[in-house]
Amino acid sequence: MHNRSNALLVELLIVIMFFMLSSTILLEVFGKAHGMSEKAEAMADAVVEAQNTADLLYLSDAPEETLLEAGFAKEEDSWTRSVGTYLLEVTLHSEESETGTIYYSQVAAILGDETLVTLPVARYEEGMGT
Q1: Contact 79/89 with Cβ under 8 angstroms?
Q2: What radius of gyration, in Å, describes the C-alpha atoms of the chain?
Q3: Which of 37, 80, 88, 109 could make an SS bond with 46 (beta carbons 3.0 to 4.6 A apart)?
Q4: Can you tell me the mean pLDDT for 48-65?
Q5: Does residue 107 contact residue 121 with C-beta atoms inside 8 Å?
Q6: Predicted local confidence at residue 128, as pLDDT
Q7: Is 60 exceeded by the pLDDT of residue 92?
């Protein structure tokens, strides 16, 4: 009878160790899944915000004023705005010709060292013909 109770205790210890190991693995898996979910959410927010900024620039007659109103700060060759965990960066340039002007913009969402999305924007404004 004494051997039977020892065998039962050993079986219970093995079952408890199995469940402890399983729970440790599951916690690790769910932790990684949560991290991936947060990154995907930040990426989706960044894409929406970059698209909104690109739309504003496409519709704007004065892109620099529009960026100032949207909360961007001018740095050397670009405009930046911090949004949550990511950074929006906008570059502007234009090309003039005899028939009009093409305004180019590039909107990028950056998370750390990784560029999440880059959206080009081009707008043509017809000039006064000669």
Answers
A1: yes
A2: 28
A3: 109
A4: 91
A5: yes
A6: 59
A7: yes
Q: Is 104 left (phi over 0), alpha (psi -120 to 50) or beta?
A: beta
DSSP string, 40-82: HHHHHHHHHHHHHHHHHHHH-SSHHHHHHHTT-EE-SS-EEEE
Q: Based on the number of CB atoms within 10 Å of its own CB, is 115 exposed (0-12), middle (13-18) or buried (19 or more)? A: middle
Indicate if the pLDDT at residue 103 is higher than 80.
yes
Q: Which residue in 78, 82, 81, 86 sits closest to 112, CA to CA?
A: 86
Q: Are 110 and 117 in contact (CB under 8 A)?
A: no
How would residue 4 be classed by pLDDT, with cut points 50, 70 and 90? Answer: confident
Statement: residue 129 has pLDDT above 60: no
Q: State the pLDDT confidence band at 130, using cuts at 50, 70 and 90.
A: very low
